[in-house]
Amino acid sequence: MRGAFGKPQGTVARVHIGLVIMSIRTKLQNKQHVIEALCRTKFKFPGHQKIHISKKWGFTKFNQMNLRHGG
């Protein structure tokens, strides 16, 4: 809340430690652009943020290596 008389200026969410805030799925050729964008985005959120690059295929439970090599 900012401004005079405590008027709300936006929307917030309570986030617990270890909770995923944002997930992005992209092509492999755009990986560095996405990492750079997330590094810049981290500063817009209070607290400590960590970028985790998953070994899964998209948002599935399957590993990338298993799907690429057929095993």
Structural write-up:
The protein is mainly α. The protein is built from 2 helices and no strands. It has helices at 31-42, 64-68. The longest helix is centred in the middle third of the chain and has 12 residues, at 31-42. The chain is elongated, with a radius of gyration of 17 Å.
Number of strands: 0
Q: What would the average pLDDT be, to the nearest integer?
A: 85
Percent of sequence in beta strands: under 5%
Beginning-to-end CA distance, first to last residue: 53 Å
Structural class: mainly alpha
Uncertain stretches of 5 or more adjacent residues: none
Shape: elongated
Q: How would a textbook summarize the main sheet?
A: none
Helix and strand pattern: HH
Rg, alpha carbons: 17 Å
Tally of helical runs: 2
Share of helical residues: 10-25%
Keywords: Ribonucleoprotein, Ribosomal protein
Pfam families: Ribosomal_L16
GO molecular function, one term: structural constituent of ribosome
GO biological process, one term: translation
What would you say about this model in short?
This protein has 71 residues and is mainly alpha-helical. The chain has helices at 31-42, 64-68.
Tags for this model:
mainly alpha, 2 helices, about 70 residues
Layout of SSEs?
Elements: H1 31-42, H2 64-68
